[in-house]
Fold these 2 entries.
Entry 1:
Amino acid sequence: MRRHNLAAVIGHVHRSGPTSRAELTQTLGLNRSTIGALVDELSARGLVAERSDRARRTPGRPSYLVTVRTDTVAVLAVVLGVDTVTVATVAPGGEILAEDHVALTTDEDRSFDRVLTTIARSCKKLAVALPHGTMVTGMGVAVPGIVRRQDGLVHFAPNLGWRDVPLGARLRTRMRSRMGLDVPVACRNDAGLGALAEHARGIGAGVANLVYLHAEVGVGGGIVVDGALLEGAAGYGGEVGHMRVNPDGAPCRCGSRGCWETEVGEDALVALAGRRPGGRAVVEEVLRAVVAGEPSATRAVNTVARWLGIGVANLINCFNPDMVVLGGLFADVMEHAGPSVIAQMRTGLVTPAHLDVALVTPTLGRHSVLLGAAEVALEPVLSDPACLPVQDIASLR
Ligand SMILES: [Zn+2]
């Protein structure tokens, strides 16, 4: 019970920011002395500190806020992108302490062994720069592919050219031998982590049921049901980009044909607008052409909008979310052809009640996936703060 309550207090301060004891008492439904003892224990374990709340202080009566400490515990968060590896040290509260970016320019750079070396080197550089005495307690890795939750085996990551590589196990060994750091390594699909972060501290904070979608070349998805990320039996859930929507459509990178991402991804938009694929730069050129009124570009974005509306309606019918978060290319499509998306979506919903859903864009920007990786890495400490050593025994009653 005490462990559960410790996790509830630190979890609240981690997600919501500095909170007074009175607010904790009210929000968590515990009495004042229990909250006091829990805050003292978290403080002794180095996770929180109390500071005076100058802004809200009423005359003659100092008030204190419980806030997370960012100089005692940190995790390593890694985002594997197609052309960049990003590594960061992140403290509880989602505070990014430092970031390192390494460009991947050649296929050799993207090879599994080279990427392991790149990650280990960046991690070492950032860990050495942490404030003296900071404990690194875990590592979270965002992968642009299908990842087994249990051991971080990457089943398939098309953009990196990886198939069945033991990422989690090899990273753990590498960190142990290179840095003497033996911590859990949690590897997850990048879109799932984006969903987790937007749910923890972004546009979806406090929303129990949400669908998060992010489109670039591929389409990733993360589905939060009753406050928890839907992962499925092995952690392969959420592959919404490979819903088959058009059996006569184009071949997909997964080996199938007519998957949703072949109709709504960047390549579809660019091809419909009569351009050759060329990454984000060409997508932006097409979007500028839409603004300029070029007929083929306008037709292209409206076609993608129609397929987006079809897919979103299917997901709303399946999960009945309060909110759908549309990121990456989907945010652009909403901006340039939002009414077409919504018109198509309406025709596909099974009841008018399903229309009671907010269509929004993410608010954490380029950091959403990185913060999601930090969330999974912090999870063991936040769910059981008693696993941390007591630093200040005197303050424990
Ligand atoms: Zn596919």
Entry 2:
Amino acid sequence: MDHIVKAFRFSEYGGPEVLRLQEVDLPAPAAGEIQIRHHAIGLNFIDIYHRRGVFAAKLPLPSGLGVEGVGEVLAVGSDVVGFQSGDRVAYVGGPPGAYTTHRNLPAARAVKVPDGLHSEVIAATIFKGLTAEYLVHRCVPVSSGDAALFHAAAGGVGSLACQWLRQIGAQVIGTVGGPEKVATARQNGCDAVIDYRSEDFVARVRELTSGRGVRVVYDSVGADTFAGSLDCLAPRGTLVSFGESSGPVEPLAVSSLGAKGSLFITRPSIVHYTADPAEYRASAKRLFAALENGTLKAGTITRFALHDAARAQVEMEERRTLGSVVLVP
Ligand SMILES: NC(=O)c1ccc[n+]([C@@H]2O[C@H](COP(=O)([O-])OP(=O)(O)OC[C@H]3O[C@@H](n4cnc5c(N)ncnc54)[C@H](OP(=O)(O)O)[C@@H]3O)[C@@H](O)[C@H]2O)c1
């Protein structure tokens, strides 16, 4: 049965003003799809890139927005096995369109969620937590005793990744933009926190590692930090460039990696680390287990009503958010 539902759509790229909350007709789920009513939706920096149209692969317009959510299954399409009405599921990926009360979703992107975890906690952590999982455990395997630098350590991905790095036994150095974020980064497990708005983070990292540099830098800030991040690495270290919150990274001469110490650079995406269904489910299982047994804390969660999504995005763009932001329909 079709439903009239509320959904954010945008028809041109731009600032938060391009987002429009509309009534749209949601058809019955097609073959291979499930229909869900959202309990909570996670807000991510990637939503802002999508809205601005900054990726080479821009979303075709008009488009929905949002890449993760948690909700209850209302109906299943033909050919769907493993899900039924009433199941509580979460998802990452599928066509962007999570900023809605209800939506249809490829069943292959849904995972059942454990009873013990609140929907808002899952919405706050699934996209960022699966990102942290692949960054820390699969992209560059970090070992106990390795020194790691994580930029934006009080943000959504940073809060979860730093906790995991600490549990592995890494020496975790976090950067934050402003003194009010230092305590949060410390709670996330950072051994040392650098306010990169007021301090030279390269010099501080060298000091904290007795001149050696770190084995890995996780850099989602991009333009403002990329060059400095390379200078923080020990010989044969790896720069994981996984975002560009401050703007795109300038092209780099490959030969400079040799001159700086046989360095590696990777530009990973969660898309490729969760494309395989078995890997996707294993990653979600690892995240849920860590949240359930308390080895990972969801941390600060800021709630906004779904209709306030544009305001929530402004808070994130202006660097005022700590931890994760969720939208509640
Ligand atoms: N490649 C992937 O698979 C993948 C997956 C998920 C997320 N990401 C990336 O990971 C990053 C973090 O995502 P998130 O959703 O958890 O966001 P977030 O970390 O909660 O927010 C972004 C943070 O970046 C820092 N930042 C530095 N310069 C900035 C600027 N000019 N404008 C805005 N923010 C700036 C701010 O922290 P400070 O004030 O502390 O500097 C800000 O709070 C984003 O770049 C996102 O695109 C990548």
